[in-house]
Write a structure and sequence with these properties.
This protein has 555 residues and is of the alpha/beta class. It has a domain of 201 residues: Rossmann fold, CATH 3.40.50. Helices cover 42% and strands 15% of the residues. The strands form three sheets. Strands 3, 4, 5, 12, 13, 14, 15, 16 and 17 form a nine-stranded mixed β-sheet that branches. A six-stranded parallel β-sheet has the order 8-9-7-6-10-11, sandwiched between helices. A hairpin with a 3-residue loop joins strand 1 and strand 2. Helix 8 packs parallel to helix 10 and helix 9 crosses helix 10. Bound molecules: nicotinamide-adenine-dinucleotide (NAD). The site of nicotinamide-adenine-dinucleotide (NAD) has 29 residues, from strand 7 and helix 8.
Length: 555
């Protein structure tokens, strides 16, 4: 049914330029980033206050949005606004170096942490779903997922292929909201990518935005294109219209073995996400309504064939990994015992980065002027000349990433480098080389900020997957260090009951006080990640801790 949005819906866009609408830049930054999250160029369903990830919201209702905006406009530089699941509930006198906003979203007492109970409470107007960067006002559009996927593929290249995916074939499926980043992130790493997608309109969308190079309807045609590119060593992405549960077993039968195989079909949801083989999209949509149980029976059977084919390709020599969509669990629960022979992407490729305090570092130009981001791109290249993956990313991102909303950039930086870069950004603002302050933040998916046993903390070395103290400590440490706003959420990408995570955002306004706060926050925030992984016994983290002089009493 057509959706007119929640009561009070209207288009929202962040102010640009240097004129303040609040009493200071920290408050102004929070206001602009809240509004930027709801910019029609950024948000998936702005009228419903939904920013991304199903129902991840920036505010609980339009009434609450208006109240947050009014509170931020009136907020003094020694006050803190308290936000409870998207609703402003108090303004307190604190001090100048304290956060201007503290936020808690979607948290439930563990015994009650189920989707059913969450939805009941949401219906009563008592909570909202905050996802990770929706309810914490630091979403920057699809650049984040492109960069995260780029980083994963770069880690795959480093581990298995001598640092480059040139001449390598990456086979994947699912080119949707997040999965559509795979084709671009793959070619940015030099790879040939074959992406199987059952819904042709999804491929067309990726072609239109330049995320995917070509479309094919026929496997022979697609294979001819990718084999040609693979031999010539040129990067190419091809979206093949088809069902992964048909195409992958056919590749196994033909003996076509890719270098890498993964998957981002929406297998976390066997009714509304994954499409069974043997049905057209229209037939699948009809069956979903007419006989949901039969739909799930068929989609599950398809996922089993799909995962079995991934496993067969792995046995034949392909590097295989699960990309956080839960498809292994589906196949395993339906009786495919070898499903977990395919490793998850975090333990395999991301955790070594987490051990160094590396994670997604992003910044946004409050001026709205792309020239400010171009100046900061140059700064990143000046400061980190030896980081090849970062160089290639920044260079390609300048060319291929279109800004959505306020201009922004993301790259992965580790312990030491985050603080150096943040302070250097503040110095640029102080020297007047940028036209307005810069907001520095990150995803909740980061080194020390999340407890999530099916994703970020899967298969921890010491078995501490479900220990959530670390995420809470991360939020507390960010408050103590003087971040501009700090958030603590439940749910996120893996859903209610499955994760707890924290975020921080800090504003480089060029002042000496913010310089000190940035130095502290950007040292202690990733530092908690190094500490968390050192505590779990990772040698890379223990080495990083001693290299950076982190004081860990029992290490
Ligand atoms: P989406 O629903 O936007 O896209 C999924 C796509 O898969 C759709 O385009 C759909 O047509 C296609 N599809 C479904 N069944 C198929 C089949 N059998 N064969 C071929 N194509 C099929 O979802 P999304 O936002 O792109 O996310 C994809 C999955 O990745 C989700 O399960 C999500 O939870 C997961 N995810 C993981 C991470 C991570 O941890 N790295 C990040 C984001 C999303």
């Amino acid at each position: 049914a057509p959706n007119a949005g929640l009561p009070g819906a209207r288009p929202v866009r962040a102010p640009r330029g240097t004129a303040l609408t609040c009493k200071g830049w920290e408050q102004e930054a929070a206001l602009r980033m809240l509004m930027n999250n709801l910019d029609p160029d950024v948000a998936e369903r702005p009228d419903d206050l939904v920013v991304y990830g199903g129902t991840g919201r920036a505010a609980r209702s339009w009434e609450a949005f208006d109240a947050i905006v009014a509170a931020l406009r009136a907020l003094e530089g020694d006050e803190t606004l308290v936000v409870q699941s998207g609703k402003p509930v108090a303004v307190l006198r604190t001090h100048a170096a304290a956060p201007r906003v503290v936020i808690a979203n979607s948290n439930l007492v563990p015994r009650f942490a189920t989707w059913d109970e969450f939805r009941r409470l949401e219906q009563l107007g008592l909570t909202m779903y905050g996802q990770m960067t929706a309810g914490s006002w630091i979403y920057i559009g699809s650049q984040g997922i492109v960069q995260g996927t780029y980083e994963t593929f770069a880690a795959v290249a480093n581990r298995h292929f001598g640092g480059s995916l040139a001449g390598r074939l990456v086979l994947t499926a699912g080119l949707g909201g997040m999965g559509g980043a795979q084709t671009l992130a793959g070619t940015m790493n030099g790879a040939v990518v074959l992406g199987v997608e059952v819904d042709e309109s999804r491929i067309d969308k990726r072609l239109a935005t330049g995320y995917c190079d070509r479309k094919a309807h026929d496997l022979d045609e697609a294979l001819a294109q990718v084999e040609h590119a693979r031999r010539s060593g040129s990067a190419l992405s091809v979206g093949l219209v088809g069902n992964a549960a048909d195409v992958l077993p056919e590749l196994v039968r033909r003996g076509v073995v890719p270098d890498v195989v993964t998957d981002q079909t929406s297998a976390h949801d066997m009714l509304h996400g994954y499409v069974p083989a043997g049905l057209t999209l229209a037939e699948a949509a009809a069956l979903r309504v007419d006989d949901p149980a039969e739909y799930v029976r068929r989609s599950t059977a398809s996922a089993v064939r799909h995962v079995a084919a991934m496993r067969a390709l792995q046995k034949a020599g392909a590097v295989a990994f699960d990309y956080g969509n839960n498809i292994r669990t589906v196949a395993y629960d339906a009786g495919f015992a070898e499903a977990f022979e395919i490793p998850g992407f975090v333990p395999e490729y991301i955790r070594p980065l987490f051990c160094e305090g590396k994670g997604p570092f992003r910044w946004v130009a409050l001026s709205g002027d792309p020239a400010d981001i171009h100046r900061t791109d140059a700064l990143a290249l000046e400061l980190f000349p030896h980081d090849h993956a970062l160089r290639r990313w920044i260079t390609l991102a300048r060319e291929k990433i279109h800004f959505q909303g306020l201009p922004a950039r993301i790259c992965w930086l580790g312990q030491g480098d985050r603080a150096r870069f943040g302070v250097a950004l503040n110095d640029l603002v102080a020297r007047g080389e940028l036209s307005a302050p810069i907001v520095i933040g990150r995803d909740h998916l980061d080194t020390g900020s999340v407890a999530s046993p099916f994703r970020e903390t899967e298969a921890m070395r010491d078995g501490s997957d479900a220990i959530a103290d670390w995420a809470i400590l991360n939020a507390l440490v960010n408050v103590a260090s003087g971040a501009s706003w700090v958030s603590f959420h439940h749910g996120g990408g893996v859903g209610i009951g499955n994760s707890l995570h924290a975020g921080q955002v800090t504003v480089a306004d060029g002042s000496p006080l913010m310089r000190e706060r940035l130095q502290r926050v950007l040292t202690n925030d990733p530092g908690m990640g190094v500490a968390r992984h050192a505590d779990a016994g990772y040698p890379e983290a223990i080495a990083a801790a001693s290299r950076h002089g982190l004081n860990l009493p029992m290490r």
